[in-house]
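Hi there. Long-time user, first ticket. I'm pasting a complex I've been working with (about 227 residues overall). I'd like to know whether the download I got is complete or cut off, because the file seemed smaller than I expected. Thanks.
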Amino acid sequence: MDNKAYSIAIDGPVAAGKGTIAPKLARRLKGLYLYTGAMYRCVALFCFKKGVDLNNEGSVESILSKINIEFKEEKILLNNEDVTEQIKKEIVAMGSSKVALYKGVRQKLVFYQKEIAQKALSEGMSVVAEGRDTATKVLPNASLKIFLTAKPETRAKRRLAQIKKRGEKEDFKKVLDDVVKRDQQDSKRKIDPLVQNPENYGYFVLDNSDLSEKETIDAIVAKIKND
Ligand code: C5P
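Hi, the file is complete. Here it is re-exported in full:
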């Protein structure tokens, strides 16, 4: 890989492999990995901790000024507390998809994400951002926009393996239901949804249902080199 600074946006549905592929790609490019979903998860986690009703838009938005999110050495800090593991919980994932519906939440988080990305790019670093709207909102001028996807059953299987690895119990049917429900919520919302026809938004669509992790990264690297 050359030393050029790339801005790469990877969006896609739940458990499509973004969280595995994006950090590895960032490492390969010696760039910054920006996990935007972590921020929505932090907002939901803070609401749970403070007993804030996630269905109440005003209450959720009122806590935004009380939270500070930082990425430090691959850890995610919420008001200086390391919440890297806590935000992985399925209940937080479902909650994050709820708070992600709200305009005030999105405005604040997208502003912050853009700031982080622009700072890195201005210092000559590559940025690999992943989420739902990184190509449409966070890095609209990205050098490469990837829509990473896989069959719902494949994604549910991968998510179940991650849950089991953490020592938690869950059954396949419930995980699949949650995957489909969160995808619907993320795709049908009014503000900055996960787009349904990615080709029309300049994305390179990559279905990795039958690809290994390495094959997926190689396909992206080949695309970067050929573009
Ligand atoms: O990517 P991850 O599953 O951690 O994201 C958690 C939730 O945060 C998503 O289901 C989605 O509702 C929200 N999100 C978003 N926009 C992003 C990233 C995540 O709305 N750019």
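A couple of notes from our side: The chain has one domain: 7-226. The pocket of cytidine-5'-monophosphate is lined by residues 14, 36-37, 40-41, 93, 96-97, 100, 131-134, 182, 186 (CB under 6 Å).
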